[in-house]
Fold this protein.
Amino acid sequence: MSPPLYSWGRFPQTPQHGHSCVWRDELPARLERVIEHHGSSLPYGNGRSYGDSCLAASDQVLHMRSLDRLIEADWTSGVLKVEAGITLAEVLNVTIAQGWFLPVTPGTQFATVGGAIANDVHGKNHHLRGTFGRHVRSFGLLRHGQPEIVCSPDVNTSMFAASIGGLGLTGVIHWAELQLMPIRASQIDTMTVRFNNLAEFFALADELDHQHEYSVAWVDCLAKGAETGRGVFIVGDHAQYGSLDVQARAKLSVPLTPPVSLINKLSLTAFNGLYWWVHPSQRKTARSAYEPFFYPLDRILHWNRIYGRRGFQQYQCVIPNANAETAMVELLRAIADAGQGSFLAVLKRCGDVRSPGLLSFPMPGTSLALDFSQSEDLQNVVFPRLDDIVRAAGGRLYPAKDAHMSGADFRQAYPAWERLEALRDPSLMSRFWSRVLL
Ligand SMILES: Cc1cc2nc3c(=O)[nH]c(=O)nc-3n(C[C@H](O)[C@H](O)[C@H](O)COP(=O)(O)OP(=O)(O)OC[C@H]3O[C@@H](n4cnc5c(N)ncnc54)[C@H](O)[C@@H]3O)c2cc1C
């Protein structure tokens, strides 16, 4: 029997039984069988969502990872057709050597293409290129008891919009055609500088975001007083010369899950302070391989184990521009007062490029993301305080990272939920959707 599947945060701890198939044409019968025996199911990519959006209400998921083939590639136009269970790492391993890169990539290369579409993921260039869904030309969707539907911006348009960011509820995406972005080299030219507070972060973002393809900041979530929101600002661009080599880095691994979280106030304060100090106070340029630039955490396999057996939750919100600076100060103060948080919180400006998805997370504003060890205090004290700030500022939380948002907050923040519910395949249901809707 295959080992149970979880979400990345391992909270809620509801093991999923995975049903997989080797060939795409086996999918309809496999879906049929799971529904017949268990009532409902949900597609599951590679479990890189943190909360319960990738967990089936029936705990019986359709595991897509074995559908990982390249179907067709046109290296002149950069159009790639792949099976939906292929990971972004597997895509890049093939496309970089041909001079093509994913136009949008999240902070992990271990997400699958199907998962990237279903959460309409964003990356460090949201201000320029919007979300992943903008670069999807078409996909094949399988709904229970129906023949395949091909969806694109011109065909089956409402199903296309509902499935991008559709949380796996509209059907199983089994292949997708993507438009890639040309590159001349696999390396990234970077510029790094640290900043002393949030006002400096916003000034840097105003100045630099539109000069560079990629932009992101790491924040010390425990810094207080005048230093609230201090951090490190990093921008990057694809190098204009160099090689198209893919040199996969050797990976480290956390071999087992300790009984309790290794993240505590002491280790956090020491690490965050050190990380800030070792970065330059003056702008410093460098050249980086693409993996450490885009996917620093992927270097350590199973890093989610360091949070111990109770798991952890990520809190990711986006606050609209008008209220972003004030709300971010309040959020970071509340987090520092609680003395909890992660080694590196991520702060990022989102742009105004519209997503084709109905329920996409980004909006023009600023996004903050950080991890917290699971505890009663987190659920009952820290998150409600943060939620109050986000709600008052007109912001919203990211379903891909969520395991706690209230139904009222979800429905307020994502008014298009009713349109998605109307197009949901009745045989697909996640723990997330049943939590926020039913
Ligand atoms: C270290 C790390 C960094 C991250 N950084 C970012 C980031 O920068 N930006 C960002 O947006 N996200 C980020 N994420 C979140 C991650 O990119 C998304 O959760 C992504 O959707 C995970 O893909 P997956 O293949 O693992 O899908 P899963 O987590 O298994 O599933 C995600 C959703 O997709 C659905 N789904 C999966 N496969 C299919 C399919 N074939 N057809 C239909 N629906 C399907 C599932 O039902 C579920 O609703 C990060 C996650 C990690 C662990």
Q: What stands out?
A: Residues 188-413 form a domain with the Vanillyl-alcohol Oxidase; Chain A, domain 3 fold (CATH 3.40.462).
